[in-house]
Amino acid sequence: MGVDEVKVTSDPSGSRPRARPQSVFHSIKFFVLCHSLLQLAQLLVSGYMKSSISTIERRYGLSSQKSGLLAAFNEVGNTILIIFVSFFGSRVHRPRFIGGGAVLAGLASLLMALPHFLSGLYDYSSHTSSASSHNSTGLCQSTIDFSTSSSNQSCSRQQSPAQERVYPLLLLAQLLLGVAAVPIQPFGISYIDDHASKRNSPLYLGIVFAVTSIGPALGFITGSLMLRFYVDFDKLTTDEIRLDSKDLRWVGAWWLGFLVASGLLFLAALPYLFFPRVMPREDGADDAESKPDEQQQTNPLQHLSLVQFLKSFPRIALRTLQSPIFLLVVLAQVNLAALLAGLATFMAKFIERQFSQTIPFSTMMIGGVGIPMAVLGAILGGVLMRRLNLSVSGASKLCTIAILLCVFSSVPLLLIGCSTQRVAGVFPPDPDALSCSSSCGCPQDVFNPVCGSDGVEFRSPCHAGCNVVETANHKVTNYTECRCVPGLGHAAPGTCGSGCAHLLRPFMVLLGITSFIASFSQTPSYIMILRTVPTEDKSFAVGVQYMLFRVLAFMPGPVLYGSVIDTTCLLWGRKCDKQTSCLYYNLDRFRQRFLGLQVVFVCGGLLCFLLTIVVLRRTTRRQEPEEDRKGEYELVTEQKTPAPSSRGTEEKGMKT
């Protein structure tokens, strides 16, 4: 047979033969495979961004509020355009729109990595000394003039036009990533549902959701691997890299994962160029034509023009929000979504600071423990919902019980942590703590922490008054003759740490349990929404739900968490008379405010689910008297009206 030939099969009825296409691009199973891989790559970028946010913050001197805004900025473009998905529906060539979104996501991912190639080398030496060419070790040397031209040259590099454009460039890339995500999931799900058989459609959608749920976890794990490489490993030799991942100044290769993800997105976009606009449905070609017609009958939005759709959008949205159950469930989900957005963005940073862990290890904890436990909880919640065959009332009770248990498991997290280590001149505040090194002329922007032999940490060897440095293999091993360190007068490079790394294991166990329990409510809450809105408004209600998620949770959540974290900062870094990222946090306040905000959101979700139980009970009580009155009326009507059979018999007897 030729390449273009197809097999011909006989119709069982004996009519004309029917051609069966042999191309894989006419198979919905192959589309499910391609779409699963595309969603995996797309959500890998999202997870990788959150895993790298604290590294980007340190690399470019951002506050936590700014990095939170950066993490949430992809929701801006998504929120603006998501309402048009409800309008376009199946009117467009959905595979090509999906492929276009994947290509745009690949370009945006490349744009995310671009600042690395525009910024030059990461100048951590300027954190050691403003006059690094004269005092590369940062020792106590009162004869050094720290206002030399080398400092001005360093500042001129930091204030170059390329460096100043880094943050706007990252915001633009995040905006494009949000725009690119608009057509991918909604069009893909509707395309599968239109062309799969009724029996296989839930299975295929379940496969897509299962595979895509792995995406964020894979993104965090990828981040853990990439951040083990030094940020400038592509520009420096191994001997020129003086830092290790345990150093507080360490910056990993945050940009590398975006290059890998962009390549995956471009490859995943290719098959969508060849999928047809409409393919034969699995259980017959005739059904493929009738399915869109059925959708148009059940979805009146398909008959509207774009202008009519935009005019009717506020009215339909208001009608949807007037359903008390819908509104309460969405508000409960908004609380949990805001919680998820903040924790996914900053939990790795919290683990790093609270338990003195490296960023790669902290990121691995989130991707390997937190997210998988949440996915497992969501799956088991759906299984339990199906096994018990719960009604809307039963689903609301299940959600309430799950969130109540989540409160009991999340509150103890506030008690598991460390107090702030002693840092001379920083914590506890003591203006005389550094009088011993006042003659050293330590620069204000220096940050090269050392740990004295007495357990007190100093911002730099200069602040510790150290005069001698010991090195081996081009790396500092010890500082001696430190006038601010009593006793031996020694100081080791690096931070002293919080001293409670042993508490990380119980913290992660409790965090995993909390994630598992909280995610139990995901599937039942979705079922409550789908069962309490009119049939013709279901797809629109889901669109309104996702829009509220983005406006009320995914956009403000990371910014709120970042702002709260900034309030716990003890010492801000400075470079060229500008404030950069935080150097030291009050760990008690960090833990209490960061995890306390988590408890607030959990309690907000619990309150909303409790109110759904109250509303449903009142609705049931209101319906019972109406049904009783209706039953009494029908009974009285039956008594007054003779039975047709007896009346007919009487008339027949009279005639006889």
| Domains, number | 3
For the report, how would you describe the main beta sheet?
3 strands, antiparallel
CATH homologous superfamily heading of the largest domain: MFS general substrate transporter like domains
Number of strands: 9
CATH class designation of the largest domain: Mainly Alpha
Outline the fold blueprint:
Elements lengths: L6 E3 L8 E3 L7 H32 L4 H9 L1 H8 L1 H6 L5 H26 L5 H4 L20 H10 L2 H4 L1 H16 L2 H12 L5 H26 L29 H14 L15 H14 L7 H16 L2 H31 L4 H30 L3 H19 L39 E3 L4 E2 L9 E5 L2 E6 L10 E3 L10 H15 L3 H11 L5 H17 L1 H11 L2 E7 L2 E8 L1 H54 L3 H12 L1
Antiparallel strand pairs: 1-2, 3-4, 3-7, 5-6, 8-9
Characterization of the model:
The protein has 656 residues and is mainly alpha-helical. The protein has helices spanning 28-59, 64-72, 74-81, 83-88, 94-119, 125-128, 149-158, 161-164, 166-181, 184-195, 201-226, 256-269, 285-298, 306-321, 324-354, 359-388, 392-410, 504-518, 522-532, 538-554, 556-566, 587-640, 644-655, and strands at 7-9, 18-20, 450-452, 457-458, 468-472, 475-480, 491-493, 569-575, 578-585. The protein has three domains: 24-123 and 159-303, Up-down Bundle (Growth Hormone, Chain: A); 311-414 and 502-636, MFS general substrate transporter like domains (Growth Hormone, Chain: A); 435-493, no CATH class. It is built from 23 helices and nine strands. The strands form four sheets. The chain has a three-stranded antiparallel sheet with strand order 4-3-7, with no helix packed on it. The N and C termini lie far apart (84 Å).
